[in-house]
């Protein structure tokens, strides 16, 4: 119905709303979530996606051991040191 409304009234306010609705429904999205503390039993990764036919992941080992006096938190490390591209 939104496509029909978009095509029938392309320059109206309703046609614009229909266009935006179609774009929102057809948009590609992906999200990966993990726990911030990884102890045994190992946590699961939650991957949610929409309108995507495939995704590729690579796990890279990292040494996160730091002296305690630095009060280390992974969220405070610069992206280039965590391997984020």
How is this fold's topology laid out?
Layout: H1 2-8, H2 13-26, E1 29-33, E2 46-50, H3 79-82
Antiparallel strand pairs: 1-2
Describe this structure in words.
This protein is of the alpha+beta class. 29% of the residues lie in helices and 12% in strands. It has helices at residues 2-8, 13-26, 79-82, and strands at 29-33, 46-50. Strands 1-2 form a two-stranded antiparallel ribbon. Helix 1 (2-8) packs across helix 2. The relative contact order is 0.11.
Question: What key attributes describe this structure?
Answer:
single chain; 29% helix; alpha+beta; rod-shaped; two-stranded antiparallel sheet; 3 helices; 85 residues
Oligomer: single chain
Q: How is the biggest beta sheet arranged? A: 2 strands, antiparallel
Helix content: 25-40%
User: What's the alpha carbon Rg, rounded to whole Å?
Assistant: 22 Å
User: Structural class given helices, strands, pairing?
Assistant: alpha+beta
Mean pLDDT: 81
Quick summary:
The protein is of the alpha+beta class.
